[in-house]
Amino acid sequence: MRRILSAAETLVDEAGMPRLGVFDGEFARLNIEQSALRLSGIPLPRGIVRMRTKEWFHAGVILPRGYLGFAVINSKVLGLSFVSFIHRDGTGSFEHSLKGRPGLARVPGDMRSGEGGFAKEGYEIKIATGLDKCVHTVRISAPARGGSPAVEADLRMLEDPTKVQAMVASLPVGSAMTMYTHKCAVACEGSVKVDGAGQLGGEKAIAIIDYHKALYPRHTFWKWATCAGWDAGGGIVGLNLTKNVVSDDWEYNENCLWEGGRMHLLGPAVFERDQADVMLPWKVRTADGAADLVFTPVGKKVENVRMVIARSDFCQVYGTFRGTVRADDTTHEIRDFFGTCEDHDAIW
Fold first, then answer.
1. What is the CA radius of gyration of the chain?
2. Which domain covers residue 28, as residue numbers?
3. Sign of the alpha-carbon torsion through 333, 159, 264, 319
4. Main-chain dihedrals φ then ψ at residue 139, nearest 5 degrees
5. Is residue 105 helix, strand or coil?
6. Cα(92)–Cα(79) distance, integer angstroms
7. How far apart are CA 245 and CA 93, in angstroms?
8. What is the mean pLDDT of the chain?
9. How far apart are CA 249 and CA 255, in angstroms?
10. Portion of the chain with pLDDT greater than 90, in percent
11. What are phi and psi of 34, to 5 degrees?
12. Which of 159, 191, 307, 319 has a C-alpha 20 to 30 A away from that of 38?
């Protein structure tokens, strides 16, 4: 039976092997570069291991009338960032997206206290993680260009580890290789302006944070679903479901329900969708029967990258979830919770 493990000092142990499982808190050091990767039996230097590490900070902010998504991604062969906005009623969406050399994308070193961002051609994202202070801050300035209106945001994501249990997982994706993630659904405050019009002021908002460091195999894939909303008492209910390259996802996965600050572990995720049209409804469930949901898209983002040494086919679809999720002896109704699904396949 899966259980939540006590957090350790380091992500990778003295022998260069990642600690695996779901943990009750953050590692003191995310020393993924000390992983004992080998090529033909020869240990790889830390510099090469570091160059193999994929990392990003992504968040989706569920606003009263919209959804703001943004990311800073460093794949070590490419640095990229995007800011997208979707009207929740399905009346439209747009995106700012920039690419460049890997060094342009600076991902914070950890969730405790780090800084990162992306800046190019007047576009800028600044991220300061602050788990030790119970707040992460994000500033976004994306000038109008190419038909996409300007976005300005100043956000405070309130993650108090004494009140909110994050999904902190380290999952096996190959020999001495781990996919580390820190995910949570938290209250968000601040301001968001789209084309000068306020989208967030005194209203409530929810941020779903996805912080990631991984040593993936060269061929990687995942399907991911996440959403959040408010319960009758004003608390946050959130969901995270992923199907990826982990071979034994009964033992190792990042699937969970957040409710009242608590995290409940769920079984392996199962995705069913029309392969010809991502805008048709998706079925998302868990193999243990705990979750049974239908996702109805209202917008999408497609990003296909072709390089000499890498490729990436990425689709992120936004919309609403309806269905049920069972945790312990309680069944939670998911009624039009806003969120996103992803389908990604890459050689990198």
1. 19
2. 4-347
3. positive
4. -120, 130
5. coil
6. 27
7. 31
8. 94
9. 9
10. 82
11. -90, 5
12. 307
For 243-259, what is each residue's pLDDT tens digit?
999 999 999 999 999 99
Q: Among all chains, which residue has been given the structure tokens 């788990």?
A: 131
How many domains does the structure of the chain reveal?
1
The DSSP symbol for 133 reads G
Residue range 277-287: average pLDDT?
96
254 neighbors 266 (Cβ within 8 angstroms): no
Helix H or strand E segment including 49: helix 46-52
Residue 7 CB contacts under 8 Å (≥ 6 apart), including other chains: 23, 24, 25, 26, 27, 168
pLDDT of 280 over the 70 cut: yes
Longest CA span, the chain: 58
pLDDT of res. 305: 67
- Closest residue by Cα to residue 341 from 242, 238, 230, 207: 242
- Phi–psi pair at 220, nearest 5 degrees: -130, 145
Whole-angstrom distance, CA of residue 13 vs CA of residue 96: 40
Whole-angstrom CA distances from 54 to 35, 211, 256, 285, 300 are 14, 11, 23, 28, 23
Q: How many CB atoms lie within 10 A of CB 65?
A: 11
End-to-end CA distance of the chain: 34
| The pLDDT of residue 201 | 81
The token pair that represents 165 in the structure block: 């249990």
Structure tokens at 260: 């009242």
How confident is the model at residue 314, as a pLDDT? 84
